[in-house]
Specification:
The chain has 191 residues and is an alpha+beta fold. It is 37% helix and 25% strand. Strand 7 (141-149) and strand 8 form a beta hairpin.
C-alpha cells in the first residue's frame, strides 16, 4: 500500500484505492500532541526537519513548513506563508490561509519592514502598526521572520493571528530556529 518513512518522508506507494488513502497517510505523518506553545514548537521542529532534510525542492519544503505550522496552531494562527525576495520586492510563495497580497515593496507593511531591516518583527496589534497592509481584516497580530544568509534577506515567513498579542519571544526564537532549518533549501535554489 503506502509506506512513509520519517527519515526522508519518501513515498513508496502502490495506490490500490483512492488518493484519499495517501492524503490520510501523509497527514498522519505530522503529529501534534502537546498543548503549550513551547512544547508544540519542540514537537514540530524535528518533524519539519524530517520533512525538509532530504528534499531539495524549495517550493515543496516551504509548502510543507507552512502546512505544519498551520496544523500546529489551527485556532491561533489564521495565515502562515512565505514571501520570497525578488529584487526590491517580496513575492508571495507557499502559504496556508486566505488569499493574500501578491507583491509587497521592501519597507512597506510588516513583511517589508522585517525584510528591509533584516530582523524579526512582532506586532501585538496590527491596527496600531503604521502602514500595515490589510490582507485579512480578521488578523489582529502578526510576526514576520526573515530568512537570512548573512545580511542578505532571501525572503520572510509571515504568521497572522486572529488574537491580539498572540506572538511573543517564544514564537520569535522557535520560528528563527525553523528558518535556520529552511535556509539550506534557499541556498540550493536560484531565486
Amino acid at each position: 500500500l503506502c509506506r512513509i518513512t520519517q527519515s526522508s518522508f519518501s513515498r513508496i506507494c502502490t495506490i490500490k484505492s483512492s488518493e484519499l488513502f495517501l492524503r490520510e497517510a501523509v497527514e498522519g505523518f505530522v503529529t501534534i500532541t502537546k498543548k503549550g506553545k513551547e512544547e508544540v514548537y519542540e514537537e514540530i521542529i524535528p518533524q519539519i526537519d524530517s520533512l525538509v532534510r532530504d528534499e531539495s525542492d524549495l517550493t515543496a519544503n516551504l509548502g510543507n513548513c507552512t502546512a505544519v505550522l498551520k496544523m500546529a496552531f489551527p485556532q491561533n494562527v489564521s495565515w502562515v506563508g512565505f514571501y520570497l525576495r525578488k529584487s526590491h520586492e517580496l513575492v508571495l510563495g507557499p502559504f496556508q490561509g486566505k488569499p493574500a497580497c501578491v507583491r509587497i515593496k521592501m519597507g512597506q507593511g510588516v513583511c517589508g519592514k522585517a525584510a528591509s531591516e533584516g530582523r524579526t518583527v512582532v506586532v501585538p496589534n496590527v491596527a496600531a502598526f503604521p502602514g500595515h497592509i490589510v490582507c485579512d481584516p480578521g488578523s489582529k497580530s502578526e510576526i514576520v521572520v526573515p530568512v537570512l544568509r548573512g545580511s542578505d534577506v532571501l525572503g520572510v515567513l509571515d504568521l497572522d493571528s486572529p488574537l491580539l498579542s498572540y506572538f511573543d519571544e517564544v514564537d520569535k526564537n522557535y520560528l528563527e530556529r525553523i528558518m535556520k532549518l529552511i535556509l539550506p533549501k534557499f541556498e540550493k535554489q536560484s531565486l
